């Protein structure tokens, strides 16, 4: 069996959770004896495409414009061109190498035309791993209005993206319910939680030494630093914790609120908060091995539900989770049912602070809840269970 994975970001140079997740899924399929290929863009290559083999996975990089950490207009144009550049630059290779199953990851929403042509050419099913429901979340946070020409354009490609899939995998039960009601139950859907390998990285203490924060209790946020996360929410907590001399916050990542984060740290004199630019996956895991509490935040205006990929790293490392979510998000139920973290609703600053203070003062609670978080990863968010779900879909399609 030959499986093709399509994703807009991939290893070895990516720092994104999506790249890590898709590579771990590809490796799991390889371990099961399948032949796995990946199609992904790369703006750094000189030729129209290049190929590499990473951990037994054949990767096809095609020439593309930059789509990460770039002006939104440039990103939109280059993402729109993704399917056409993939089709043009890889046409000779993939024409000769039909696959049995196409798995594609969204975001981006623009893969639909490319997936449609591949599945029609090869006569195979496609499986969409849908993580961010775009453009809905940018409508929710006020970046776009519901009926602007740009929104209409995005919604057109959103529909093409969904129609190209034989199955759409949502990341939580409430997400699935919202999606089915929103689209009048016309798409075949399933639930596929985010996934990760359950492996810990050993600490060497170098991160704390580099910034002279030995002995501090580290609250760590790692990932997208943007409006969808509402970084002001975390910074309000950091400001509230200033009197606690042992508490220290680290924010690591990139996004459209980086300058806001830097400005607030400086203007509020948050001497307990450090911002760092993104790092590669190896260094990221080393940093995780030295932190005490894993932070996440979601903008309270979201109407869709989201399970941030950063939680996978926290759980794999056995780190307790401190979160602030949008109202109605069933992530709260999952984490609290397994006693894997302390969760509040964004806007309830008092409870967010109380939960943080509880973690700060009680090392035993941190240890117990961290162990539960690791156990939750094995039970619900393993790469093995994700691979099982996709293979079951494929086998049922063949019956």
For the structure shown, list the relevant keywords.
single chain; 399 residues; alpha/beta; Rossmann fold; 8-stranded mixed sheet; 17 helices; 43% helix; globular
Description:
The protein is of the alpha/beta class and 399 residues long. It has two domains: 2-195 and 383-398, 3-Layer(aba) Sandwich (Rossmann fold), CATH 3.40.50; 206-380, 3-Layer(aba) Sandwich (Rossmann fold). Helix content is 43%, strand content 20%. It contains 17 helices and 14 strands. It has helices spanning 17-31, 72-80, 82-89, 91-96, 112-122, 136-140, 149-163, 173-182, 206-210, 231-240, 258-267, 281-288, 310-316, 331-337, 349-361, 363-380, 383-398, and strands at residues 2-6, 35-42, 49-54, 57-63, 101-106, 126-130, 167-170, 189-191, 217-224, 247-254, 273-276, 293-297, 321-325, 341-345. Strand 13, helix 14 (331-337) and strand 14 form a beta-alpha-beta unit. The longest helix has 18 residues, at 363-380. The chain is globular. The two termini are 16 Å apart. The model has no long low-confidence stretch (mean pLDDT 91).
